[in-house]
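Thread title: Can someone regenerate the structure for this chain?

I was given the following input by a collaborator and told the matching structure tokens would be attached. They weren't. Posting the sequence so someone can regenerate them.
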Amino acid sequence: MTTPEPAMTREVIELGDITIGLQRRQVKHVYLSVHPPLGSVTLVAPPDAHDDVLRAYAITRLGWIRQQRERMHEQARETPRQYLERESHMLWGRRHLLSVVERDGRPNVQVDHRRITLSVRPGSSQSRREEVMHDWQRSLLHATLPPLIAQWEARLGVRVQRYFLQRMKTKWGSCNHRAGTVRFNTELVKKPKDLLEYVVVHELIHLLEPRHNERFKALLDVHCPSWREARLELNALPLSAAEQPRGARPLA
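Best answer:
Regenerated them for you:
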């Protein structure tokens, strides 16, 4: 049983044209975040942290805040799909044309070299077609991720307790090193598999080093020497405009 987190006090720090929402929680450290899609900013701090100290810290991070906002505004967003005949869809880095077949029976998705065939019941709505496609895409990730995770668990000497699939706005993955859990963006099913592997390595290394510091980069250099190129390629690809949490999948 978990204890509910105490209610947090909401305050604001004004720094010129930037407004930072200050949230006081029972945490040990200060966390600054920039959130999509418009670049809103929050600063999470312990209840007893002094206002002047927090303001001074925020001032030192103004350049970083503006950089994150600029990246957010410039990053490509995939045009929302309508799930219509001959619409293009990406799968593992390759473009496929969608073929929609309406027929009685259980909805399903099949794929060949250049075509994805979506079978749905007659009169199915766009939202239902989207749901069927997303379920299929998640099934592909659930089939692909466990062997990759097992491979890199053995190489890194770490253990993943659970992994999650989640549609994210600005991240390709995340790691909770204390709980031993990792999250992967479901949009990765659209990217080349070598980039999916890079994200797996990146997040599993966080089980050894939680921060993006020099030790973390050194570990990446050893285990994934081309990580800088992979990061650049991945971040140049479009993200989905949606975010939809999904359940966890335990690892055997």
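The chain has six helices and twelve strands.
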